[in-house]
């Protein structure tokens, strides 16, 4: 191999916490060759981002220290004074971060945020700098670049902002690009665009890329070699093919076995648990088969017909309604006991609002929701109370969905006591029982939420939901915020509970691969409407609607042997905002297979 | 924008109306100005005469009606005490107060901003801790008392600066100002600093909090990753974001400076409108109290409007809109 | 799944397994006592409160009993002795009043006015704020418009006008201070209640069909307390300062009521002749009280800052 562009040797990074130095990266070593893409992958706490920050020396000097050697084109970045980094940062090494929404200064024009780099490193000024800025925006495929220079970041969508950030990072044709989770905050179709953009620019520029990510799919898609980090240490490094084919370290194997692969469910007719990996030996135990839980004989527990939820947008002195967000537009579906129906789609497609409308956390504007025979929309106070007992929700952010001031024992007991299911005296025993059912211990009930990890908190939320013995659980992005391995465990738990209690799940998610793993049926949502609904196998194996196809095509597949170059359309996610006088068209569906319905395009419907 | 201006104008008018009703009615219910104005030896006939001449024999709503009609034509009544138009009395004294408030505001910003930025950039340094200790002290110092202490030290003991009055003034566009003569500057130094002390602390605290918070944001990290010099990061990226909360505060505080000038003017015998209102309250000189109130309502509305407009200029995310 | 990029929070994660299950209240108290500045503040405030409460027992003299005053002892310097052998620790005022005793009695009034007005303003403001956030829509817009308009007027101006209308007296100044302060509490509570209401734990409570009142008082309100406590501490200090200012201006408390502001005002005319102590010591006592309360408030603000919560 030619001389590496970047060579990290024995990097140890420590932070000072309460006067103590604690190392968060220990003896990390890896190289990046010319024009090579190296992925550093790991879960939260693995030290991957800290590694990236250490290379750029962006950690606060007083509270962090790095030892070892970081050679960039032969010179040791850690050796010189900090000032010297100024000539390297943004010039010879470009860096982009995870959050495009906050990476740009909200009160400075886009143009000046680009030209300041050109002025600093390339000595360009005035008209020259501006012309170069236009060229840079053109290169990252931002339309009408010249006009957009005078705009502020708030006028750009998340994907567009990330393009601007990339333009800035590449402004000085760096030898190395460090990308720290650059697509994590983006929707999957936008993610595909940005990944393609990075790949294209890398070829054009001939630069090397250090790609930090937690997403094995992205790793498989983009990297030549992969470095796996676990609790601050590099546990394995090899070519990406080798890692995916025959990972040696137990952690790498565990990580990979917890990653759902889109398309891997072909031939399965039921949801499938994730295999368990022994962390000592790395041995993989195949998952136990899943029982058939769907009660096809009984009437559906949930029946949604023509549900509509719109939010008025008011403006002006008289607060007139000038338009509406058509969050949910004329959707219908059913859900049986023991069945998992997934609502899948990108941000703003109305999947969460659908879930919230079912129990009137958002007030629907039209349609009917029948819950176990009760009419939800017409329900009075006491009937709604009964309905809400039968439908429980689990939310996305386990840090947010538990009241920080209430001990978890009380939090779980509260709904049971309020609904008169148990007395104050009986509550502790019942809470302990519930905690054990979700894999926690009854002794934990005296603790506050902040004393638990994310995965534990989500288990607590599940225990609390189970407390009311619901028939249906609406899981709103419930596993999205969890680390891969924790996510797999929580999903396994949910499948166990479905078997034990015959629970129905309405599983709301943007993650196609997880949805494929655990669903019986799938509904794809776009701009508030269901564009395709049907059995899981049918939707994933023979998708009919163009949007479904686009969505599936955009998902990075965690298998480097299936890597493909994609032609990605550069279009943005559209907004469901409509003017006040907008009349939603009546949508028609065609049955293309048993229980598999596809929305008909307007032109077809007219014919 | 026009809808915004219209709604602000409407709001000011409503506030003026409500305030005038409340204060007019309130003042009517308590105390009788005649008792204060007349000597105890006045005969009942003299008393009646005075009551009639001020129109105090009419029912309260009639009195209010007359007040309102006159007010609309720019006449806020004559002072019971000075027997001059109340509006004139106040406008005469306004420049002195505004000058004092402006000088204090400039001091607060000139000292508060740099100290606040420094304390925000080096939150754990010794000097920063000293600045913050000073700001707690400045926050806690009773204005009237520290004013007295300043007179005691700088005027009485050291004899450096005069302790009262306005000194020589120069007419600028017909308005007498002290800021442009040496003697005037010597006179305004103590009262302006006295008035500014509380605000210096406030500006320090807000600036420091803003800088600390902004430094944590992603775009600062990205700016560092771009290789920008620290000076540009602080003076352009951080400062511009920090100014935004500061602008609102400065607007509110300018109003509060004008109001708190009451105290400073009393101590330093500064001939402004604050001194006038205190004296008028003591003798229940209703027209002056009402006129002072009306003028401050208008003044604060103008300040708030200016703040909003400034805000929308500095922060591109803000769009002025009706209500 | 996002890796926290902030090093401090990042490294703190390791300590999460430790089992300190103290309630939030105890944790706050503990943190407060560990902060040396706050501890000094607490000790001084405690001493001043004890001194004020026990003033009739520990003061050498009842400064408002004219029979105990001797005009011959007027304007004695600190440390002087009276005819009867009593030592005037901080000197006397023009009427021969022992300043140390007068300050102790003055503290009583200051603390009473400050705490009473803050407590009443807090009760009213917090209720309005909570109701406003709960009601939403036009009610909320209307109430908050009133709050905004009132807050655009400086507290001292509103107090001046009210006292002009109401006249002097302890009850009147408390009322005036309540009127000037309730809006701060209303805005604070409403602001945090709106934030809390949007958080997922409230959605979770609603989806479990807990009664509205329970959600409001058991879930939302306790989470609004931290900023409210900080505001209240700072506001008590401010109310005490405002009362002293108004009394100094001669429109707060009547001359018959012991008040620190009035004492400073009394000494004003003797300042130029060098009898500084009549104004100086009462003001110093006021300053020490306010600084101590603000030290506690400042420390509380750091402790209760939501950014620091894990």
TrEMBL record, chain A:
Residues 6-256, 302-552 form the ABC transporter domain. Part of the ABC transporter complex GsiABCD involved in glutathione import. Responsible for energy coupling to the transport system. It is found in: Cell inner membrane. GO terms for biological process: peptide transport; transmembrane transport. It comes from Rhodovulum visakhapatnamense. It is an enzyme of class 7 (translocase). Belongs to the ABC transporter superfamily. Glutathione importer (TC 3.A.1.5.11) family. Keywords: ATP-binding, Cell inner membrane, Cell membrane, Hydrolase, Membrane, Nucleotide-binding, Repeat, Translocase, Transport. Pfam families: ABC_tran, oligo_HPY. It is a peripheral membrane protein. GO terms for molecular function: ATP binding; ATP hydrolysis activity. Its EC number is 7.4.2.10. It catalyses: glutathione(out) + ATP + H2O = glutathione(in) + ADP + phosphate + H(+). GO terms for cellular component: plasma membrane. This is Glutathione import ATP-binding protein GsiA. The complex is composed of two ATP-binding proteins (GsiA), two transmembrane proteins (GsiC and GsiD) and a solute-binding protein (GsiB).
From TrEMBL, chain B:
It is found in: Cell membrane. InterPro entries: BPD_transp_1_N, MetI-like, MetI-like_sf. It is a multi-pass membrane protein. Belongs to the binding-protein-dependent transport system permease family. It comes from the Bacteria. Keywords: Cell membrane, Membrane, Transmembrane, Transmembrane helix, Transport. The chain crosses the membrane at residues 12-31, 100-121, 133-157, 177-198, 242-269, 289-311. Residues 94-311 form the ABC transmembrane type-1 domain. GO terms for cellular component: plasma membrane. Gene3D superfamilies: MetI-like. This is Peptide/nickel transport system permease protein. GO terms for biological process: transmembrane transport. Its main location: membrane. It comes from Rhodovulum visakhapatnamense.
TrEMBL record, chain C:
Keywords: Cell membrane, Membrane, Transmembrane, Transmembrane helix, Transport. The keyword Magnesium does not apply. It is found in: Cell membrane. Its main location: membrane. The chain crosses the membrane at residues 37-59, 111-134, 146-167, 173-189, 276-297. Coiled coil: none annotated. GO terms for cellular component: plasma membrane. Residues 1-22 are annotated as: Disordered. GO terms for biological process: transmembrane transport. It is a multi-pass membrane protein. The keyword Cell membrane applies. PROSITE patterns: ABC_TM1. Residues 107-297 form the ABC transmembrane type-1 domain. Pfam families: BPD_transp_1, OppC_N. Belongs to the binding-protein-dependent transport system permease family. This is Peptide/nickel transport system permease protein. It comes from Rhodovulum visakhapatnamense. The lineage of its organism: Bacteria, Pseudomonadati, Pseudomonadota, Alphaproteobacteria, Rhodobacterales.
């Amino acid at each position: 191999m030619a001389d590496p562009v970047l060579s990290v040797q024995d990097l140890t990074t420590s932070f000072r916490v309460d006067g103590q130095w604690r190392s968060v990266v220990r003896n990390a070593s890896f190289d990046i060759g010319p024009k090579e893409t190296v992925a550093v992958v790991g879960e939260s706490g693995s030290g991957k981002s800290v590694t990236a920050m250490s290379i750029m020396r962006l950690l606060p000097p007083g509270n962090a220290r790095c030892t070892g050697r970081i050679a960039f084109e032969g010179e040791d970045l850690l050796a010189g004074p900090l000032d010297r980094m100024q000539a390297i940062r943004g010039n010879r090494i470009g860096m982009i971060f995870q959050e495009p929404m906050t990476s740009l200064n909200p009160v400075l024009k886009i143009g000046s945020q680009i030209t300041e780099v050109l002025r600093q490193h390339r000595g360009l000024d005035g008209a020259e700098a501006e012309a170069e800025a236009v060229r840079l925006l053109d290169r990252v495929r931002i339309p009408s670049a010249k006009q957009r220079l005078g705009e502020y970041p708030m006028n750009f969508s998340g994907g567009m902002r990330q393009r601007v950030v990339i333009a800035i990072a590449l402004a000085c044709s760096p030898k190395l690009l460090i990308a720290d989770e650059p697509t994590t905050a983006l929707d999957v179709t936008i993610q595909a665009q940005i990944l393609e953009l990075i790949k294209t620019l890398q070829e054009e520029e001939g630069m090397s890329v250090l790609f930090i990510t937690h997403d094995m799919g992205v790793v498989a898609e983009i990297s030549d070699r992969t470095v796996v980090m676990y609790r601050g240490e590099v546990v394995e490094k090899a070519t990406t093919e080798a890692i995916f084919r025959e990972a040696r370290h137990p952690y790498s194997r565990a990580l990979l076995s917890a990653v759902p692969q889109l398309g891997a469910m072909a031939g399965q007719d039921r949801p499938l648990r994730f295999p368990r990996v022994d962390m000592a030996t790395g041995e993989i135990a195949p998952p136990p088969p899943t029982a058939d839980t769907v009660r096809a004989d009984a009437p559906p527990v949930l029946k949604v017909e023509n549900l509509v939820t719109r939010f008025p947008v008011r403006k002006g002195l008289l607060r007139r309604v000038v338009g509406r967000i058509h969050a949910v537009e004329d959707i219908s579906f059913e859900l049986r006991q023991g069945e998992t129906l997934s609502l899948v789609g990108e941000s703003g497609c109305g999947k969460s609002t659908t879930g919230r409308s079912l129990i009137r956390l958002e007030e629907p504007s039209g349609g009917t929701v029948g819950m176990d025979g009760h009419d939800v929309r017409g329900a009075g106070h006491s009937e709604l109370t009964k309905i809400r007992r039968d439908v429980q929700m689990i939310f996305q952010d386990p840090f947010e969905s538990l009241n920080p001031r209430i001990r978890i024992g009380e939090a779980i007991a509260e709904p049971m006591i309020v609904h008169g299911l148990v007395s104050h005296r009986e509550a502790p025993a019942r809470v302990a029982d519930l905690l054990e059912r979700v894999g926690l211990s009854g002794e934990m009930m005296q603790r506050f939420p902040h004393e638990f990890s994310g995965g534990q908190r989500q288990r607590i939320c599940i225990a609390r939901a189970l407390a009311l013995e619901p028939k249906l659980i609406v899981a709103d992005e419930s596993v999205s915020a969890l680390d891969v391995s924790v996510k797999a465990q929580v999903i396994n738990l949910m499948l166990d509970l479905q078997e034990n209690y015959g629970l129905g799940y309405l599983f709301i998610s943007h993650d196609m691969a997880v949805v494929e793993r655990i669903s019986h049926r799938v509904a794809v949502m776009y701009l508030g409407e269901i564009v395709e609904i049907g059995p899981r196998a049918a939707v994933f194996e023979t998708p009919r609607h163009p949007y479904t196809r686009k969505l599936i095509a955009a998902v990075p597949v965690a298998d480097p042997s299936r890597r493909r170059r994609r032609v990605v359309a550069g279009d943005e996610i559209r907004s469901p905002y409509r003017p006040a006088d907008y009349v939603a068209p009546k949508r028609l569906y065609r049955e293309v297979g048993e229980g598999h319905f596809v929305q008909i395009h307007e032109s077809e419907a007219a014919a | 924008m026009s809808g915004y201006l219209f709604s602000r104008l409407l709001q000011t008018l409503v506030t003026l109306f409500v305030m005038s009703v409340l204060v007019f009615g309130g003042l009517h219910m308590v105390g009788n100005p005649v008792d204060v104005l007349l000597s105890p030896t006045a005969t009942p006939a003299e008393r009646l005469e005075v009551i009639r001449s001020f129109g105090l024999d009419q029912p309260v709503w009639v009195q209010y009606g007359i007040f309102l009609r006159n007010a609309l034509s720019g006449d806020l009544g004559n002072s019971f005490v000075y027997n001059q138009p109340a509006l004139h009395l106040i406008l005469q004294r306004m420049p002195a107060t505004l000058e004092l408030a402006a000088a204090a505001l400039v001091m607060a910003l000139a000292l508060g901003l740099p100290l606040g930025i420094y304390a925000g950039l080096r939150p754990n340094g010794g000097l920063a801790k000293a600045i913050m200790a000073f700001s707690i002290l400045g926050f806690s110092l009773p204005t009237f008392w520290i004013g007295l202490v300043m007179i005691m030290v700088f005027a009485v003991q050291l004899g450096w600066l005069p302790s009262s009055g306005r000194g020589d003034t120069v007419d600028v566009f017909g308005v007498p100002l002290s800021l442009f003569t040496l003697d005037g500057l010597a006179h305004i130094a103590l009262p302006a600093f006295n008035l500014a002390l509380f605000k210096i602390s406030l500006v320090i605290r807000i600036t420091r909090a803003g800088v600390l918070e902004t430094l944590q944001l992603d775009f600062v990290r990205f700016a560092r990753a771009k290789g920008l010099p620290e000076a540009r990061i602080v003076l352009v990226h951080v400062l511009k974001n920090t100014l935004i909360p500061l602008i609102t505060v400065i607007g509110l505080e300018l109003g509060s400076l004008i109001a708190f000038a009451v105290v400073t003017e009393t101590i330093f015998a500064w001939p402004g409108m604050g001194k006038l209102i205190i004296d008028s309250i003591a003798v229940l000189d209703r027209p002056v109290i009402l006129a002072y109130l009306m003028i401050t309502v208008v003044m604060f509305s103008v300040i708030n409007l200016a703040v909003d407009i400034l805000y929308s200029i500095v922060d591109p995310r803000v769009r002025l809109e009706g209500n | 799944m996002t890796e926290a990029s902030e090093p401090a929070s990042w490294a703190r994660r390791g300590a999460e397994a430790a089992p300190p299950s103290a309630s939030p209240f105890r944790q706050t108290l503990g943190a407060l006592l560990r902060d040396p500045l706050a501890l000094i503040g607490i000790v001084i405030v405690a001493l001043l409160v004890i001194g004020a409460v026990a003033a009739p027992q520990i003061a050498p003299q009842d400064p408002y009993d004219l029979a105990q005053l001797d005009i011959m002892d007027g304007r004695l310097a600190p440390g002087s002795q009276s005819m009867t052998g009593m030592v005037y620790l901080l000197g006397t005022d023009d009427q021969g009043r022992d300043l140390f005793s007068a300050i102790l009695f003055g503290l009583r009034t200051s603390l009473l006015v400050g705490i009473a007005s803050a407590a009443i303003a807090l009760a009213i403001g917090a209720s309005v704020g909570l109701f406003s956030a709960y009601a939403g829509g036009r009610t909320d817009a209307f109430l908050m418009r009133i709050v905004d308009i009132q807050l655009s007027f400086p507290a001292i101006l509103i107090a001046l006008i009210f006292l002009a209308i109401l006249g002097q007296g302890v009850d009147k100044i408390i009322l005036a201070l309540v009127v000037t302060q309730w809006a701060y509490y209303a805005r604070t509570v409403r602001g945090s209640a709106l934030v809390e209401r949007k958080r997922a734990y409230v959605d979770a409570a609603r989806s479990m069909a807990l009664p509205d009142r329970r959600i409001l008082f058991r879930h939302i309100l306790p989470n609004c307390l931290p900023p409210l406590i900080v505001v209240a501490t700072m506001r008590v200090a401010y109310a005490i300062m405002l009362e002293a200012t108004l009394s100094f201006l001669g429109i707060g408390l009547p001359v018959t009521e012991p008040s620190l502001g009035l004492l400073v005002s009394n000494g004003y005319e003797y300042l130029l002749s060098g009898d500084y102590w009549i104004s100086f010591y009462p003001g110093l006592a006021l300053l020490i009280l306010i600084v101590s309360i603000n030290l506690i408030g400042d420390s509380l603000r750091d402790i209760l800052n939501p950014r620091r919560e894990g």
